[in-house]
Amino acid sequence: MSDQNSANASFPIGGGEMGQLIREKDWSKTSIGIPKEWQQSLKTTLNILLSCKFPMFLWWGPELTCFYNDAYRPSLGVDGKHPSILGMAGEEAWPEIWAMIKPLIDQVLEGGESVYFENLLIPFYRNGHIEDIYWTFSYSPARDNDGNIVGVLTTCVETTTDVYLKRNLETSERKIRLLLQQAPASIATFKGPNYVTDVVNENVLKLWGRKAEEVVNKPILEALPELKNQGIKQLLDDVYNTGNRFSASELPMQFIRNGNLETIYINFSYEALHNANGLIDGIIAIGHEVTDQVLAHKKIVANEEKLSMVIDASELGTFEFQFKNKKLDGSKRLHEIFGLAEGESINHENFVSSIHPNDLGIRKSAFEQSFENGILEYTSRVILPENLVRWIEVKGKVHFDEENNPQKVLGTVRDISSFKRNIQKLEESEQKFRLLADSLPQHIWTADTEGNLNYFNQSVYDFSGYTSKRLSEEGWLSIVHPDDRQKNVQAWNKSIITGRDFLIEHRFRKHDGTYRWQLSRAKPQLNQDGEIQMWVGSSMDIHDQKEFANELERLVIERTNELAQNMKDLANMNKELQSFAYISSHDLQEPLRKIQTFSSLLLENEYDNLTDDGKEQFKRMQNAAKRMQALINDLLAYSRTTISDRKYEPTDLNKLIAEVKMDLKEELKSHQAVLESDILCTLNIIPFQFRQLLLNLISNSLKFAVKDRKPHIEISSVKGLGSDFEMKRLSPSTHYCHIKITDNGIGFEEKYSERIFELFQRLHGKDKFQGTGIGLAIVKKIVENHNGFIAAHGKPDQGATFDIYLPEN
């Protein structure tokens, strides 16, 4: 035992806590024996593992004995496996996950290849229980002194926190989008400097008079061109470039709705959206249409002159008070109310001084509130000469300057007694409520604190056809659809008990016996002590929206069936195309072969009997047959690029280039051509199609070589994001492999760069250059089969360049 401790004292070197535990452990009881007998490869591996600051774990020997370093130690937690699994057999140390990780270990031990996984769930026992833990790790073979694989070295990092953070972020984003869609306001978000519409809810689509597909993923000024001349771009630019919030009230704007240009009024705001780095990457717009309110306000303003005439003829005293200079101007009636002669002046000071001391606080509070909502209203007592006390009712409207500071107040003063004031105010309030409620198309109703409905506006009676007496006798539930009554009562009782808002969708019976969907809401009205005094509710017809949703669902099902039929038709068309390909490759070529065979026999056997003109005609006939056969073969190849099974495989392009060189060995040699290629990409492609692509392009370079100039062909590739390349059609965030094929042949003019990829298109006569005009069309089809893009550039007598961009997938 002392010999072992002596041997252990010098191995391993350092290694922190785990190095000390290895030195102190009695290894004679393990399958790998004492350190003195360990292979040098094991010692070297352990020294590297213990000195590494990255989490590492080692399984060694036939029992896969366990070793790990200090960086791995925190992953074991507390009240778990540490330090007991040091030197323990793998299956004994990790029983709860052995069935999961043993096949991975065997794959490395038997195959000799490393394996790698990202964010893989491997739960095990730690901190007193089994925990769900996510890992990113690599298993690599560990070898003995003779190079045999005897263990597995693990490099790993725990990613549990990252995985849960990503999940929470995705959940949060879904909730935000759902919240925006369900918000009662009109909401839209725009991304990027072009303000591409990203998220829209139903309210904003209704406001714009558009459908979602007409605006989503499109710049807002293109989707709504009528906004271009309304200064909206300048507002968006300012918010996007400065981050300053913009808001407007009752702003007139024009939208094309129902085919007509309509002017509406909107309260809205623009606010900048920031990405994770704090940079502005979009704008959120929130608005409400207030056209009805603005038009109503204009009507009020238009009637102010008439109102002034009425006021002059009434018992109201009118006044105008300027906040800045404290100037107060009052009417004749105002003087009378305050007991002043017509010639006596009234000013702010004697006005305020006449207010009863106990009511000064009421007046102050009323002014403070008016600065928020623009409405001044209060009642107070005033002490007039000879200590005469009167009650006055003051009402007015506060006007604000451009900086939203109170500028002046225009109002009226009424002389009333306390009893008359209370009665009149109650009657006026009741009358205003009923007048407003009866003028609205929505159903308005009220209920007492016990939930008993005690008032319905005229809209309810018009809709149901009930009289007030009948509705009182049969009860309001009689107009609710029988299937909705139970949930209606339950929801209403819950609101009465809890004091929370009432909200429900249900159906009301119309006077003609039909039912229509309604959205009903009710809010409790509270007194100053927070006690419920009554309930005020409304019901809005949403039947058309419901019908629209049902119709939309029907259309989706109908469109799905149409797509299924189209897929079936497409499959039949593919079968017919395959039949055509069979005829092209067999039946059409058979008579061509006979023409070529018989013409060859005639030339061979009757050559001397033919005139020179006959010999020339036979040769022309043979050439025509060859061209026809080439055309059929090229058409067949083109069709195969469309209908063949697309089996993608990871393929080394360097190997494909080597195969193409071998296929074109004689042609390259006869042209004395040089074909150079860099170390090319490995891509997930359809090998036989891409081999055809390379054959066609390289053959083209040989075919269109300049006479007396040795052909020189270069092939290179580079990987990068779409934004790294100059081709506009690429997705900026997608990774591509850019393959470039350049030659020094006859080239072409740039204006033909698109035309050369069309079927049967030739830039040169067939008497000068052989071919069917299909080769480059096949090349383009193959690139499109790989979801890629191809572009051609050329200069006459200087050569051509083909740029291919394939996405990495």
Describe the model:
This protein folds into six domains: 158 residues, Beta-Lactamase; 113 residues, PAS domain (Beta-Lactamase); 113 residues, PAS domain (Beta-Lactamase, 2-Layer Sandwich), CATH 3.30.450; 98 residues, PAS domain (Beta-Lactamase, 2-Layer Sandwich), CATH 3.30.450.20; 102 residues, Helix Hairpins, CATH 1.10.287; 164 residues, Heat Shock Protein 90 (2-Layer Sandwich). The chain has 26 helices and 29 strands. Strand 16 and strand 17 form a beta hairpin. Helix 20 packs antiparallel against helix 22, helix 23 packs across helix 25 and helix 25 runs antiparallel to helix 26. The N terminus is likely disordered. Pfam families: HATPase_c (PF02518), HisKA (PF00512), PAS_3 (PF08447), PAS_4 (PF08448). InterPro entries: HATPase_C_sf, HATPase_dom, His_kinase_dom, HisK_dim/P_dom, HisK_dim/P_sf, PAC, PAS, PAS-assoc_C. It is an enzyme of class 2 (transferase). It catalyses: ATP + protein L-histidine = ADP + protein N-phospho-L-histidine.
Task: Please summarize what this structure is.
Helix content is 41%, strand content 27%. It contains 26 helices and 29 strands. The longest helix is centred in the last third of the chain and has 43 residues, at 543-585.
Task: Describe the strand arrangement of the main beta sheet, using strand numbers.
Answer: 2-1-7-6-3
Mean pLDDT over all positions = 82
| Number of beta-strand segments | 29
Describe the global form. extended
Helicity, as a percent range: 40-55%
Q: What is the CATH homologous superfamily assignment of the largest domain?
A: Histidine kinase-like ATPase, C-terminal domain
The largest sheet, given as strand count, sense and whether it forms a barrel, is: 5 strands, antiparallel
CATH class of the largest domain: Alpha Beta
What fraction strand? 25-35%
Helix and strand content put the structural class at alpha+beta
Number of helices in the DSSP assignment: 26
Q: What's the number of domains?
A: 6
CATH topology of the largest domain: Heat Shock Protein 90
Poorly predicted parts? 1-7, 765-769
Level-2 CATH architecture of the largest domain:
2-Layer Sandwich
- Computed CA radius of gyration, to the nearest angstrom: 44 Å
N- and C-termini, Cα separation: 59 Å
